[in-house]
Predict the structure.
Amino acid sequence: MTKRIDVKKTYKLFIGGAFPRTESGRTYEVKNAKGVFVANPCLASRKDLKDAVVAARAAQSGWSHATAYNRGQIIYRIAEMLEGRTEQFVAEICELTGATPKKAHDEVESSIDLLVWYAGWTDKISALDGSTNPVAGPYYNFTIPEALGVVGFIAPKKSPLLGFVAGIAPIIASGNTVIALASESAPLPAMSFAEVIATSDVPAGVINILTGKSAELAPWFASHMDIDGLDISGLDSKMVTEIKVAGAQNLKRIHSFKDLATPGRILAFMESKTVWHPIGV
Amino acid sequence: MATTLALSTSRLINGEFAMTFEYAPAPESRASVSIKPKYGHYIGGKFVAGEKHFPTINPATEEILSSIALGGKKEVDAAIKAAKKALDLHWSKLSGRERGKYLFRIARILQERAREFAVLESLDNGKPIRESRDVDVPLAAAHFFYHAGWADKLEFAGVGTKAKAHGVVGQIIPWNFPLLMLAWKVAPALATGNTVVLKPAETTPLTALLFAEVCEQAGLPAGVVNIVTGDGSTGALIVDHPGINKIAFTGSTEVGKIIAQAVAGTSKSVTLELGGKAANVVFEDAAIDESVEGIVNGIFFNQGHVCCAGSRLIIQESISDEFIKKLQKRMEKIRVGDPLDKNTDLGAINSRAQLEKINELSLAGDAEGAQRWSPACALPDKGFWFAPTIFTGVTQSHRIAREEIFGPVLSVLTFRTPQEGIDKANNTPFGLSAGIWSEKGSRILWASQKLKAGVIWANTFNKFDPTSPFGGYKESGWGREGGRHGLSAYLKGATHD
Amino acid sequence: MNYYSLIDGSDASLKNFLKNLSGVDAVGADARAAMLATRSIKTSSKRWAIDTAISMVDLTTLEGADTEDKVQALCTKAVRPDPSDLNVPSVGAVCVYNDMVATARKHLDLIGGQHVPVAAVSTAFPSGRASMKVKIQDTKDAVDAGAGEIDMVIDRGAFLSGNYIGVFNEIVAIKEICGEKAHLKVILETGELVTYDNVRKASYLAMLAGADFIKTSTGKIAPAATAPVVLVMLEAVRDFHEMSNVRIGVKPAGGIRNTKDAIKQLVLVNETAGPEWLTPSLFRIGASALLNDLLMQRMKMDDGYYASPQYVTID
C-alpha cells in the first residue's frame, strides 16, 4: 500500500482578520531541526506592516470599548480553541525545534494556561492599578488605567508558541491591539496560532501576525508614527539602542520582558488617567 | 395552509385611530427543563436520598413542581464532613490556577445551559422569564467567570501575605435570586480555596439542585460543593455546627441578628447581607423620563423582592405632582402575569406567606392615611399576585416608610431642600442602597458622600456586576460581596475583612 | 400664529422654552429602548403588526438615477405591494424628489392609487445647504406638482451653532407654503444632532413651528432611526400632546430593514406615546427594502413556511 501524500499548508500572513500573502511576493525557507525543508512562509515587508497598523488602529477603539468581561471571555475562548489543537502544535514545535514530545506538550499546555491566566486579568487590572485619591479639597478624584493603543511585538526566537502568547495576551487584555512579528526561525506555530485566533471570536484587526526578518522589520516598527508601544522581548540585543532611538520620535513606550506571567506586562502598555470633579450641592 | 388570523376589534387602519396593540401570548417553552418528582441532597459528589420531604410549588399557578428533602442533623453532619474531607485531601492541595479552571468550566456550562436555568428559575420563583433570562442567569455565569480569574491571583488582591482560606464555609441563601445568590456565595468561596455547604431557600431549591449537575459536568471534585435543602431549622443546624469555619448569610435582618448572636463567642467568621428600605432621591433637575424608568425598575423589578429595592421615592416637592402623574402613566404599562410569558414585566409573589406580609403592610398604609394607587390590572385567580402599587402622602412616621415590605409597593415622600432629602433617606436603621437622580455632577457626588448606604446608584438603579462590591451599612449587614472587597471575606487573616 | 400658546415666536421665548426641557440620560434612554426591543410579538399580534407596518411605509426612491419608469414601478408596488394577494394594504405614501412628484401623482391616479399620497423631500434635501429662496421654491414646486406631503430638512448647521430661531423661522415659512394642501414632516437628521438632548430640543422646536410630523433622518447618513432616538421623539410628541392637546406624528427613516425592526418600532410607539399613534396618520416608516421583508414574513405567517425573495416583486 503506497503511503498517503499529505496536503501541505501554505502559510500566509494574518492581517485584519484575513490571511493575505505578503504584498512583496517574497518568501523564505524554513527547515526543520534536521535541516529538511518544511515550508516557505511569507517574508513580510514594511508595506505589510503598514497595512497591519491600519487594521490594528481601526480595531482599537472598538476593542478598548468592549467590556472587560467580554475581552476576558474572548481570550479564554482562544485558550479553548488552542486546547483543542494541542496535537497540531506539539507536532509543529517538535518538527521545528527538535524538542521532545514531552517538552512540546509542556510548552503548549503552558501556553493554554497562560492565556487563561491573562483572560482572568481583564476585569481586575483596574482594581490593582486604579485608585480613588483623597485630595485635600472638595473633589472626587480617581485614577483609572486605560489602554495605550496600537502595540508592536517582536516575539522571542525560542519558545515559538509560549513566548508568542506571553506577549500577545497581556497586550490585548487591556484593550490594545497588536501587530506581532513571529520568531524568524520558527514562525509556523505563530501562523497556526493565527488560525486559532480566527476561530475565537477575536474581532478582525485586534491581533495581526507577520512572519519575516526582524532585522529588516524592527526598524520599521520602531519608526512607525502610528504605533504607540513596542514589546521588544525577542529583539536581538545588538539592535536595541537603534530601535529605542527610532522609537523616541513619537515617544513610543518600549519594553522588554523576561517574566511570562506578570501583570506588569499588561500595565506597561496602559496609561493612567486621573479625573477631578467637585463635590457640592 | 392559509390561516386568516382574525384581527380583534379592528377599526379602519388608514386615517383613523387603530385598535390597541394587544400582545398575543408569547410563552417560553418548558421543554428545556426536566424536573424530577423528588430530590435528595447533593453530598460528597453524589445525590443522596432524603428522609422527610416537603413540596415546592410554582407560585404563579400553585402547581406542585417537586418534592424536596428536609435536611436534618444527619445530612448536615454528612455534608460538612464531606466538605472537610474534600478540603483536606484535594481542594487545599490544588494550585490556584487549577482551582480557577474548574470555576471557568462552571461559568461556561452555566452559559451553555442558560435557557434551562432561566426557565427553571421562573417556574420555581415566579419571576418573569425576561428577568431570569437577561439578568439572573447571565450575572450568575459572570460571577463564576470573574472569580475564576482571582483563584490564581490572590497575591495581587490586596489581602496581605497571611491570607488563607477559612476551610468549610456554610452558606444560606434567600429565595429572591436563587441561582444568582448561589453564584455570589459559591464562586468567591471556591476561588479562595474554601469548600462549601450551601442551603438554598425553602421555596426555591430547584436551580441549586440543577447546579449540582453543573458541578458534575465540570468534573468538580466530590465534596467541594455540597447542597443540603431544607427550611430554617436546616439553616440553624449549619450555623451552629462546629465544623463550619465561616458563615455567609443573605436574608432578613431579623434572622441575620439571630445568626450574629448564635456565633458570638465562637471563632466563626460571618458575613451578612440583610434587608433594606432604600430611598431613591429625585432632585428637580433630574432627567425626568429616565428617572421615572429608574423608579419603576427600582421597586417593581423582581416584584420588589429585592433587598436593595428602591422602596421609598423621596422626591423634591417642586416636581412631585408632575412626576407622580408620569409615574402612574408608566405604571399602567406594566404587564402582570404568567412568568413564562416573554412579555411579562411583573411576575408572581414568591409565596402565600410573603403575599400575606405585603397585604398586611399595605393595609397598614391605608389605615395610617396614605393614599394607595394601582393601575387597573387583571390578576390571575390561581397563584400569588399583587398589583404594582404606590402610596403617596407618606411620611417618615408611617409603617410603610420604615418597614421592609419586600413587594411591589412604593412609598412616596417629598423634600424641600437637598439636605432634607438626604436626612430623610438616611433616617432608617437600614443602609443597603440608595439612588440619586440629578443631572448635576457635583450634586450627585455630594449626595453620595452624605448617604449612608453601601451601594449608591446615580441616575441608574439595580445594577450589579461581579467586580462591584455589594453590601450594607448599619442593619443591612456585615461585609461586601463582589470585587476585591468580597474576596477578603473568604480569607482568614486578610488585611480587610 | 399662536404657537399653541406655548411661546410667543420670539428668540428669547423659544430659547427659554428649550432650555427648560428636562435633560435626557443617554444610558437610561438606551436601556429603555433595549428593554422594549425584547418584547416578543407573535401570532395574531404579529400578523396585525405586519399589516399595520405595511400601511405605514413611505415607500421611497431618492436616487440621482431616478427616472419616470423607476418612479412608476415604485408607484405600482405602493398601491398593490403583492400582486398575488390583493388583501395586502397599500403603503402609507410614495416618497420621491420633487421633480418626480408629477410623474408619481399621475401614475398613482391611473392605477387606482388615488388614496396614496405623494410625499416630496424638499428644502435642498438632504443637506439643507441652500438659500431660503431656493428652499421656498423647492417646496412650492413640489406642492404645485401635487405633493400631499412635504418632508423638509432643518438647517443642522444653524441648530448646532445655537441659531434656534433661524431654524424655527425656516420651518414656519415652509409650513406656510404647505398651507392646507400638504402636511409637513420636519426631518431633524438626528445622526448629525448626535445627542438625545439635541433630539429632544429639535423635536419641540419643530412642533412649535408647525410640524405635522417630526422625522428622524434623511436616510442618507448613518446613524439614522435608532431605537433610543425614536423613543425620545415619541416622548416628545406624547408630552407635547399633554401641553397642547394636539397629536403630532413621528416618522423614523433609514436603518429599518426588516420586519423585526419594524415591529420594534410599533412596540416603541405603543408603550411610549400610546396606541392612539398606531395609525398612518400619526406614524410612518421611511423605507424601501423593508416592504419586501414584511411581505415575506406575511407569507410565512399565512403559508406556514419561509418565503423566498423570488416570490415578492422588485420595484
